[in-house]
């Protein structure tokens, strides 16, 4: 996906999320985020949008406080319409700010380069996944454009190459053994979509690419379900990530998913 598309998707995905929760009680539990309700999820996402907007606007060269992103205990007390408007406003500010930052601009040195390009993509998919969380919480249908879902999976595969994967998991090298490969295969997509990913574990580091090949373990299912699956959204069949079938060494797959999701636990 293009940089411009990412910038616009931050706004578009937020608008879809707001449409899912219109009329819902903010106290509604969010199963995908244990301990959080709908109001807290919306506050979390709105604060994350504003955090990124601050990073890009100030061209921060050091850490920007993330305290407000998870300090959401009072969100249920807000007026639902005001919270939805606040979320929409923040998404617009963030989408506009990263677009103004330009593809060559820099932000805080966090992630691969920390550029507005990185943040536009990151916040697109942060919003997509939390939209799924909200939709599931209120019983709304969740669909996502194939191009968006495939780009989100491309992004996820890149996380396995980052140094923190190895720094925070000294046992990860045990995954790097000869001849082991993970496969993620989307079903129901056009043949020319290339919606299949291979992750090689037989080198000095993780290596991923789009393509086909033999694998030690394969996770296959609809593209949107594969996306939610790698994000740990595994529920009953018919729910988020629930229609993914795993064939082969499931323990190896779980170990890889645990290692590459380090940034979700920060």
From TrEMBL:
Native species: Streptomyces endophytica
Positions of the UniProt region annotated as Disordered: 91-112
Gly residues: compositionally biased ranges: 92-112
Protein name: Maleylpyruvate isomerase family mycothiol-dependent enzyme
Domain Mycothiol-dependent maleylpyruvate isomerase metal-binding, first and last residues per copy: 9-135
GO molecular function: isomerase activity
Keyword vocabulary terms for this entry: Isomerase
């Amino acid at each position: 996906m293009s940089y411009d598309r990412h910038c616009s998707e931050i706004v578009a995905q937020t608008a879809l999320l707001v449409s899912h929760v219109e009329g819902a009680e903010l106290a509604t539990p969010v199963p995908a985020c244990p301990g959080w309700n709908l109001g807290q999820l919306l506050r979390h996402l709105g604060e994350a949008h504003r955090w990124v907007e601050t990073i890009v606007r100030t061209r921060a060269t050091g850490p920007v406080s993330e305290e407000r992103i998870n300090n959401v205990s009072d969100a249920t007390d807000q007026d639902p319409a005001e919270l939805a408007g606040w979320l929409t406003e923040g998404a617009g500010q963030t989408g506009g700010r990263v677009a103004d930052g330009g593809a060559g601009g820099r932000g805080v040195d966090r992630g691969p380069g920390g550029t507005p390009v990185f943040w536009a993509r990151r916040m697109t998919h942060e919003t997509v996944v939390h939209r799924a969380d909200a939709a599931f919480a209120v019983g709304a249908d969740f669909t996502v454009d194939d191009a968006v879902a495939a780009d989100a999976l491309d992004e996820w595969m890149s996380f396995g190459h980052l140094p923190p994967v190895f720094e925070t998991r000294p046992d990860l090298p045990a995954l790097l053994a000869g001849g082991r490969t993970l496969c993620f295969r989307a079903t129901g997509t056009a043949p020319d979509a290339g919606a299949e990913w291979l992750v090689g574990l037989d080198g000095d580091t993780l290596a991923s690419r789009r393509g086909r090949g033999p694998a030690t373990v394969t996770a296959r299912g609809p593209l949107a379900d594969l996306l939610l699956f790698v994000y740990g959204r595994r529920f009953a069949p018919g729910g988020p990530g629930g229609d993914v079938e795993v064939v082969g060494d499931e323990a190896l797959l779980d170990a890889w998913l645990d290692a590459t999701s380090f940034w979700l636990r920060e």
